[in-house]
Fold each of these.
Amino acid sequence: MLHALADTVRALRRHLDDVILPQWRQAGFNAALGLPHEAISQDGVPLPDQRYRAMACARQIYVHARAPGDEAAAHAAVLFDGLLRHFHDAATGNWHFSVDADARPLDRTQDLYTYAFVIFASAVVFERTRDPRARRTMLATTQAVEARFRRSDGGYDAALDATGVALRGPEQNPVMHLTEAYQAAARVAEPAWFAQKLRDIADDVAGRHLDARTQCIAELPLGTAGNRVEPGHQFEWVALLHCAPQVYEGLSLTLAVPRGSLWARGQGVDAATAGVCAALDPAGPVSDAMQRIWAQTEYARYLALTGDYPALAHQLEQFRTRFLHETGWREVLHPNGELARADMPATTPYHLATCYEALENVVENLAK
């Protein structure tokens, strides 16, 4: 079984490196602006751009900076230039959420999710190229996050207007990606400082979002009307805590997250197809049955990291059949397997890349 699993992982990586990433260096890339298109069609044609998001650009930087080969590294450098040129306001230090089709500022919201991905992309660019601009950008954006988004109660606001006034309070998803970003930053600068921030974030998430009954991390602070649990995010937190066990040693979140993931797996994963639903009501029932590809990649990463290899083999077989095809992927499926979203957005290769890296590490360790 392990030999077959290794073959599957290698095939997934080839599909990413040989099919998907070249597509985003060619049809998916606007060479005039130096930015990735927001989405392409199932047959690889760029869809009309109404906007370009900094977060989408940053995710594309990550996948090309981490991919093998000089061509991928060079493309990551071009994208990083585009990120700095089009989204950063040097006068204020702000990062625009989006620009329009002509690369003029469109949405000037300061979005924590976006800032997190700028830090993340800058860290991996510096790790690969040692470009000093990447390190400066990473540290300056981190400083902005701590000065602007950090609240007096220890949490982080999810969004600010251009002048720094809070638009949205704490949310789980931005701080989860800030965690990912700070872990990447700690590999290249100030590891002790970032470790303390990571512990602070974990403690705040446990106090603000962790449901005592299910041990799941809710998307909004506990007690918020319309709250939900996303199984994919439970699995993603397992991977994040696994990346830095020494940082999180002794924290309550390290005990809760594995338990919450088991609950989410039982409530939100279809046993036959291994399909992960989008969201659960905190009480348990499925509230959004759509199956988004990113949640499937997080489930695969979770199964690999927890050592459930029989389940992983079944899940990857279903994933390849249901979500991948010769020229790309299917972004969202109905539970019955029908396509629910026909485009392929620029943000998704990041999910594939982070999943496959984890799978490769597991297979490599098993081979030792």
Amino acid sequence: MGSAATVDPLVATLLSPWLLALYGLCVGSFLNVVAHRLPRMMERQWWRDVAAQLADAEGYRRVFGLPAPKPVTATASELEGRLQGLPALGLAKPASRCPHCSRPVRWHENIPLLGWLTLKGRCAGCGAAIGLRYPLLELLTAALFAGAGLRFGAQPAVLLWCGFAAALVALSAIDWDTTVLPDSLTLPLAWAGLVGSALGWLPLPLTDALWGAVAGYLSLWSVYWLFKLTTGKEGMGYGDFKLMAALGAWLGWTMIVPVLLGASVIGAVVGIAMKAKASLREGRYVPFGPFLAGAGLVVMLAGPQRVMGWLGW
């Protein structure tokens, strides 16, 4: 890995930990939007899929051997009409608004961290509280970007690791809120790790990245099926398999066991604490994705050799 002394001075400045932290604040502000809107965008798409399925008369006939009843086709039409009547929703539009009074957020109120501090954590229109999570997520992303700068030095590859960290922060926030790990984030993250290794942008041979992805996926896939065959219940979702595959693609197969150990221990501690406080959600479980992501970030910042040293391996 390179260092700031081996690259152009301008690049060294632009990719210094302090400026990376500033970039992280801005990216963290966007991640707040992603965590809030992407699940809602996915829900809309799911209902579009439902409407399309209900409208598939030939498909109904193939499955049930009967013509689709009128209530089914009528429901499809009603759903499609309601979906078309919804306002546009994307990551860029509409502009940010207060969820309580719909007051637009002014540009200076959207400045990462400073906007929240200026507003004192409350909407300027209705006075509703703006969650502390917003500035905390921005600060977390800034810290991770700066940490990546310190770990990998002022070289272009550090931006890849900043992207890795940003994706894990977004996935953690979404999984914690919804218990869903979107394919639109986990799959590109896995492919990015494999492509980065293939092009020599990441300090990991392609064979290690490939087997890391395979081992990561199969590790949790095996646990899932063992638990299901033993208890008849599902202990985790398929998104966890894909996230673990992505971590393996970036960190290599040797880090699969340390990541799983770290995530399991921390997840168990948090789960026990939440159970003691009676704060577990319906179903009495804690999403595993944030702990997998957290363990992966620790490996990113500490490095595989140091992690192996912690475990005495």
